Amino acid sequence: MSARVLDGVAIAAEIKEEVGREVRSLAEAGAVPGLTVVLVGSDPASEIYVRSKVKSSAELGIASNLITLGVDTSQAELLGILQQLNEDDAVDGILVQLPLPRHIDTRAILEAVDPLKDVDGFHPVNVGRLTIGQESLVPCTPAGVMQVLQRSGIAVRGRDCVMVGRSDIVGKPMSTLLLNAGATVAVCHKETRDLREYTRRAEILVVATGVPGLITPDMVAEGAVLIDVGINRLDRREDVERLFPGNAAKLAAFDKRGSVLVGDFAPQSYLRSSAYTPVPGGVGALTIAMLMHNTVKAARMRRSLPTDVLEFA
Ligand SMILES: NC(=O)C1=CN([C@@H]2O[C@H](COP(=O)(O)OP(=O)(O)OC[C@H]3O[C@@H](n4cnc5c(N)ncnc54)[C@H](OP(=O)(O)O)[C@@H]3O)[C@@H](O)[C@H]2O)C=CC1
Ligand SMILES: Nc1nc(=O)c2c([nH]1)NC[C@@H]1CN(c3ccc(C(=O)N[C@@H](CCC(=O)O)C(=O)O)cc3)C=[N+]21
Ligand SMILES: [Mg+2]
């Protein structure tokens, strides 16, 4: 079977186009949506992501603001900044980039963001609302996966879905969205005794573990849809050779940049699928598009404007 590549970049571009139209109509009504990103410390990966969020905002006409804080910022200082942002009427969306330095209690910070401005969808109020199927701000990566499925004509209702990973930011909200959409969902993790027993049964297999090449062809049902959320940077040539035997393009990419990005699926498993999301260029591209979507949604919610015009998450 020849597998279809689900082009995350193209789908993200389509969504950004739609969100851009919403931004312009809000701006005409005098309500330019505003997004503030808070970055504590200087993790290089976080700096890249944050820059790309600010750049996308600018492209769409969202007023973005980046607050960069030193790695020694105290939890109390960060809470004080969040309180100011919660009260600032020009700020529709607040995102605190994760991971935070170890001396800061991540949960305490996520709970300090006004749920109406919580564009990550990580506040317990939004988690709860999602669970009971009420309108909420939905975590960007899982919401992006639902967009990929929907816009690629892949039905979810009644299908057997397996989610590998149970984190609060990807695995759990992803399994909730699939369940709410009518799928039968199994959620697997490190303590799952026989992972293959589950993955082999999946018609739609979503994997977010951060383990490069975890899912091998023997773990995939013929014709399954594979959604690879994992983003792993390989910086040793022998790891690239092991995961991509005979793949000249990946090796060339490695030799050019000194590292490559890979997902959680061994590439040979794609051959058994009917469709799959590549890494890079798959789910990752959707995350930022959905952040832009959530910022506009937050702007509309806070002004009691209808959100159904853009309700696709
Ligand atoms: N595309 C995007 O936009 C995004 C991509 N990511 C990427 O997705 C991946 C996951 O992120 P995140 O959810 O934050 O990661 P976490 O580390 O928080 O969670 C990983 C999950 O995978 C499970 N897991 C790990 N190893 C195995 C294994 N060998 N077998 C079965 N389950 C396993 C863990 O199980 P247990 O709970 O038992 O420990 C855990 O539930 C990462 O690669 C990350 O970079 C993340 C966010 C956005
Ligand atoms: N509060 C918070 N919210 C987040 O949403 C959040 C976070 N913290 N911390 C880190 C993770 C990771 N994340 C990604 C964003 C964009 C890409 C992305 O654009 N990926 C592209 C390009 C990747 C590249 O070339 O480097 C791709 O996969 O094709 C990936 C991953 C958001 N996260
Ligand atoms: Mg912590």
UniProtKB/TrEMBL annotation:
UniProt-listed Pfam families: THF_DHG_CYH (PF00763), THF_DHG_CYH_C (PF02882)
Give the superkingdom in one word: Bacteria
Describe which pathway this protein belongs to, using the record's wording: One-carbon metabolism; tetrahydrofolate interconversion
Catalytic activity reads:
(6R)-5,10-methylene-5,6,7,8-tetrahydrofolate + NADP(+) = (6R)-5,10-methenyltetrahydrofolate + NADPH; (6R)-5,10-methenyltetrahydrofolate + H2O = (6R)-10-formyltetrahydrofolate + H(+)
**UniProt keywords, alphabetically:** Amino-acid biosynthesis, Histidine biosynthesis, Hydrolase, Methionine biosynthesis, Multifunctional enzyme, NADP, One-carbon metabolism, Oxidoreductase, Purine biosynthesis
Do you know which PROSITE patterns this protein is assigned to?
THF_DHG_CYH_1
Give the matching InterPro entries. Answer: Aminoacid_DH-like_N_sf, NAD(P)-bd_dom_sf, THF_DH/CycHdrlase, THF_DH/CycHdrlase_cat_dom, THF_DH/CycHdrlase_CS, THF_DH/CycHdrlase_NAD-bd_dom
Q: Where does NADP(+) bind?
A: G165, R166, S167, I231
Which residues does the UniProt record annotate as the domain Tetrahydrofolate dehydrogenase/cyclohydrolase NAD(P)-binding?
A: 139-301
- Residue stretches making up the Tetrahydrofolate dehydrogenase/cyclohydrolase catalytic domain: 6-120
EC assignment: the record states: 1.5.1.5, 3.5.4.9
* Entry's family note: Belongs to the tetrahydrofolate dehydrogenase/cyclohydrolase family.
Description of how the protein assembles with itself and partners = Homodimer.
Q: What does it do?
A: Catalyzes the oxidation of 5,10-methylenetetrahydrofolate to 5,10-methenyltetrahydrofolate and then the hydrolysis of 5,10-methenyltetrahydrofolate to 10-formyltetrahydrofolate.
Full protein name: Bifunctional protein FolD
Q: What is the lineage of its organism?
A: Bacteria, Pseudomonadati, Acidobacteriota, Terriglobia, Terriglobales
* Name of the encoding gene: folD
